[in-house]
Amino acid sequence: MAPLRIGILQVNHDKSEDIGDRFPDDSHRFRDLFDELDTRFRYRVYMTIGGELPQSADEQDGFLITGSPLSALDDSLPWLADLMEFIRECDLAKVPMIGACFGHQVIARALGGTLLKREGGYNIGVEPHEFVEVPPSLDVGPGMPAFHMFHEDEVADLPPGCRLMARTTGCGIAGFYKDGHILTLQAHPEFHNDFMNALLDQMAGGSETPLLKAARASLSQQTDGTAFARWAQAFYARGGRP
Question: Which of 56, 68, 152, 189 could form a disulfide with 102 if both were Cys (CB 3.0 to 4.6 A apart)?
Fold first, then answer.
């Protein structure tokens, strides 16, 4: 059986010396995570941040939209409207699509949900996730896995037809799904602590705040990127079926 074809829509390209030159980019972090599975995918990376998108929803077997420090509320991004139109095309065709962080937010906005700036500012650190409803692609409830969080925007209202999947102490809509073809997390399951610490160093600029100190303290918790990879594998294998 041929491997599933997964298109990764990359919406970030970090060129900094302290982050971009030290760590794999967003698409490779997801590929590294998925490549730990027994079943491998075949990848195509689309540099969506540069305007590259698939020609049609059936170009791949499924898609993933990465995270980004950019805001899905920023209509000045020249590629954002086309990305949201492609999300709606995949939704109509019921092509499996996963969104993480920015991906989670832009899917929500494209499908008619409400995206806002958080009243409390950034939510940063490792947070256990309470899964309130298990998507059809998961056979067993995942319990309380923990993932890295790093976001200033948040989904305030779910899009029509979508169901709340997960919440955390800092994020009321930490994940949602629609039928068998949309699956999102506000979190960064592809992060690891070295990368997170580098982001915190960059944000601190030499001055630690209570927010950053609390975020660093939370990194003592074990994260569950491998669990996310298994869910993604099961989700894509269902081919969008409920």
Answer: 68
